[in-house]
Amino acid sequence: MSIKLSNVSKYYGSQAALKSVSFEVERGQIVGFIGPNGAGKSTTMKIITGIIPVSEGEVWINGIKVEEDSLQIRRLMGYLPENNPLYTDMYVREYLLYVAGHYPVKGNKIERIEQIIQETGLGLESHKKISALSKGFRQRVGLAQALVHDPEILILDEPTSGLDPNQIIEIRGLISKIGKEKTVILSTHIMQEVEAICDRVIIIRKGVIVADGKPGEIAMNAGIDKETLLLEFDRKPDSSKIQEIHGILKLKHLSDTQILVETDPAKDMRPILFNFAVSEGLTVLSMQKREMSLEEVFQELTK
Ligand code: ADP
Ligand code: MG
C-alpha cells in the first residue's frame, strides 16, 4: 500500500478538522479528493506529507510511519501546496535548482532540471523570472518543483484552481501523463476533472469521509444511487397512474408529454413502463436512462 491513514483526527484548538479519517491508496492510483471549502482536504494533504502532525491516528507511506522518518517521507513525496507559493523573484531554472538542493537527486542535478523543464512544458519560459509568468506557467513551475526529485507519490492541492479553461486542460493533461507512473492524490472543485483523470474519488465533508469509490460507482457505494428515466409520449399520459406503478419512486413533468421518473435501481422499469404505455394506448417516442452525475452525488452528500 502506497498511502495508509488509520483513524486520523486533527484538532485545531477545540475544533475537529478531521474526525477519524481512514483510507488506503494503492500504488499507481490517481485519487480525486473533493469536498466543500473547509471540509479538511488541505489538512489531510498536509498530514500525509508530514508537514503537520496528526492529533490522533496513524499515517504510513510505503509502510513507513510518517512521524518516524520524515526525511525518507519527503524523498518519496512531491507536494504542490494550495495557492502554489513560489519565490517570484527567482528565475525558473534558478528556483528549480534551489529546490533540487534540498533533495538527494539521482545523477546530475542540472540535467535532471532540464528534463523536468521539458516534461512540464516550461522550455520556452524557463529563462524568465517566475513573477513574469502567467498563472498556467506558474502552476507548471509548481508541478516541476514537486517532481524534481522524482518522487513516487504526488500530493496536489487544487492544482488547477484559478486557471482559465485552456490552462486547466493543459495542466490536467500533464497530471494524467505524470500519473501513469506515480501515485497521485489531487484535490479539486471541478467534477469533470475527477471524471476525466481519476481512477477513484474520495468525498469529504466536515472532516468525515462520506464516499469512496470509482467515479461511476460512487453513488452506489454511498447508498444514494437512484435511476432516472426520461420518457416522451405522443400525448399527455395520466401521471397519477404512472405514479401507482410499483417501482416508480418519483415523477416530474418536464412538459405535457415529457416526464422524468425516478425508479428503484434494483429493477429495470423500462419494459414495465413500455407495457403500461401500450395498455393506455400511448406511443413511447423515446425512453432514456440517466445515471446520477458526480455533481449530483456530490451535492446530495455534502449539502
Ligand atoms: P479544505 O482544504 O477542505 O478547504 P482545510 O483542511 O483547509 O479544508 O480546513 C479544514 C478546517 O480546519 C476548516 O474549518 C479550517 O478553518 C480549519 N483550519 C485549517 N487550518 C487551520 C489552522 N492552521 N488553524 C486553525 N484552523 C484551521
Ligand atoms: Mg484546501
Task: Describe this entry's structure for a reader.
The protein is of the alpha/beta class and 303 residues long. It has two domains: 3-221, P-loop containing nucleotide triphosphate hydrolases (Rossmann fold); 227-302, Alpha-Beta Plaits. It is 33% helix and 28% strand. The chain is built from eleven helices and 14 strands. The protein has helices at 41-48, 70-76, 92-100, 109-119, 135-147, 165-179, 191-197, 218-221, 239-244, 270-280, 294-302, and strands at 3-12, 15-25, 30-34, 56-61, 64-65, 77-80, 153-157, 183-187, 200-205, 208-213, 227-233, 248-253, 258-263, 284-290. The strands form three sheets. Strands 6-7-8-3-9-10 form a six-stranded mixed sheet, with helices on both faces. A four-stranded antiparallel sheet has the order 2-1-4-5, with helices on one face. α3 (92-100) packs across α4 (109-119). The protein is elongated and about 80 Å long. The mean pLDDT is 93. The protein binds adenosine-5'-diphosphate and magnesium ion. Adenosine-5'-diphosphate (ADP) is lined by residues 12, 17, 35, 37-43.
